[in-house]
Each structure stands twice: as C-alpha cells, then as structure tokens.
Design a protein that fits this description.
about 400 residues, three-stranded antiparallel beta sheet, Receptor-associated Protein, 3 strands
Length: about 400
Amino acid sequence: MPAFEYEALDGAGKRARGFLNADSEVAARRELRRRNLAPLKVGRSDEKSASSGLTAGSPWPAKALSRRDLMVFTRQLASLIEAGIPVEEALGLLARQAENPMVRRIVSAARSRVQEGGRLAEALGDHPRSFPAVYRAMVAAGESAGGLGLVLNRLAEYLEKSAEIRGKMQAALIYPAALGVTAIGVVAILIVFIVPQIAEQFDGTGVELPMPTQVLIGLSGVLQQYGWLLLAGFLALGLGAMLALRSETVRLRRDRWMRRLPLTGGWTRDMEAARFARTMAILIQSGAVLPDALRASARAAGNGAFAETLGKVVNDVETGTGLSEALRRHDWFPGLLVHMVAAGERSGALGEMFERAAKQLEQDTDGRTSLALNLLEPAIIITMGVIVTGIILSILLPILQLNTLALG
C-alpha cells in the first residue's frame, strides 16, 4: 500500500501535514475527510521525492541524507527491529517522528516499497545518494542471514565511530588552519606594504644592497605589480583541478600518486586497510559471501587505486586462490592484516579476525594521525619564524652596512 503526503485543514481552519497509507489518491482523500480534514494537497510520497530530486532519474542533483541523519536513522531502526517491531512498522514510526521533511519523504518512500513486498535493501536502493552501496550490501546480507537488527547495530556503531574520528580531525585542524592563514597574511603584509616603505629609505644612499635585500625588494615589487594576477592564477589552477578530478581517470592517477608519496603513502594505505577490514568484518559476520563482501568493500573504498586492487583480489579469489594469498600479492595490505586473515581462514573465524585487525589498524592510524596533527602546529610556527626572520635580516643587513660605513 503506497504512502501519501497530505496537506489539509482541520475543523479550526489550521493547516495540518502528514502521511497516510491508502490504495489510491482518491482513497487517501476519502480517509482525510473521514478524519474531518479538508484535503488541500495529496500526493504519493515517492513521487514528491522524485520531484524534489530524490531519485536517480531527476534532472537535478539528488538530495541525500546527511551523515548525521543516516547515523540517527540507522541507530533508531536497529533499536526498533531488535525490539521485535516489523520493518514496515518501524519505518512508519521513524517517518512520523522525523522532523526533517526530506527524511520523512525518503523513509516513507522506503516504507511504501516494503509494503509492496520489496526487501529493505531494495527500498533503500531507490535512494543511492542517501544509502551508499556498501550500506545496502550490509543490509541485504543481514536480511538474508536473518540478523538485520544486529547488522544495523554494527552499521550504526561504524557510522558513529567514523563521525567521531571525523569530528576529532576537524577540531584538531581548526587551530593549525587558522595559524597557517594568519602566517600567510602576516608575511604578505610585510612583503607588500612594509618592505617597500623601508626600501625607499635606501634610495640615494649609494650603497650596494646585499643580495638577500635585493631579492626581498624584487619579490615585493613582483607581488605589488602582479599580485592579483598570481592570485587569479592560483584560483584558476584550483578550479581546473576540481574540474579535472571529475574524471575517473584523473582521480585514479591521483590516488595512485598519493600511495607513492613518502610521507602520506603509508598513512593512506593504513586508512584504506582499516576501512576494508571493518567493512569485511561486518559483512562476513552478517553472512555475506566472500566475493560479494569484497565487491562491497571495493565500493566503500575512498581511494580508487585501492578499489582497483580489490577488484584484482576478487578475481584471484574467484579462481581458487586463498584470500590471504591474494592479499599478500599486493602492497596495499599491511602484514598484520594478511596474517590475521590467514589465521581466520585456518580457524574458520574470518569475520572475527577481520574485526580484530580493524581495531588494531584503526588504533595505529588514530595514533599516527594525532601525532601528525600535533606536529603540524609547531611546524607552521617554525616555518613562519624562519620566513619572518629572513625578512627582518634582509632589512637589517643594509642598515648595519650603512652604520659600518658611517663609523668608518
């Protein structure tokens, strides 16, 4: 039975909005009149979602649930299903309680699909921007294994942990970012406004300025004359890079390059390996078949080169190669993960070993990230100090030279 969204007037003339289930629009209007409501607008919830850009066929970019909305929805749905409430009824409760109209529409549309006989994963598949492929794969695995509530709980924990890590990183980056912007502003003011005024004092002295002072004055002149052009050039480069990154080929080359960088390459590998281990743990413990779990993990990867590598792993596994051996052939997977997977294959507890590996890799990655962020602040301060010291010395050198000549 489809869901309809309505706007109506009650007996006191006040506008009322909500959702109801009916066989047709006519039946929905009849039900509203039975409730002593005068219908103003009545339409299918999924149709309104489509007109709002919530479906893949919309010509406008589809709106999607925010990370927070998805996290709250997953946690609440898990609690309701584990309490024994049927999926259709749980979705109806969440739709009625949602304060965000977009959340109400998406959840109501999913409920309509479930009422029509579809599975929850299929209903969520109508909104791919709100529910990523790996999310739907985990839900499908939970439905197949009869443990949907457990899977949703694990998904909620995963989303909450990801949000916590993201929040910590954003909070830790605020001060270094503000410090970096301040440093650039101070240096720009010194070079563009202060240095030219000091340079005027040396005109007519007949003293040959030291090389550092000449370089500083020359740089100041370039920035004064061509500063706006340089700024426009940097903006154009940034815009060009953003447009280029829309190409899958360019993104893949960037991701491969990031893996080869001496400082960030190892961090990128460990981040992707930790995400892969966590995703595999949830999927395998939910009853997913190994090749399907690997494909879903590839779709969840944040690095295109890593996803490409997982595609090769899937091919190896499907041709009879053991998972640990397939992982060992590629440098994307740390030795710890490979050994844990091998132990899981021998003991028959692959999901549990993936979970242990995920916890260890996440702990190591969190430690390295915290260390890098803690080192970033003093690095910015030292860099700023070196630049400002260089500017000051470039200004003082000709002054000291003039004093020496005067005393001589």
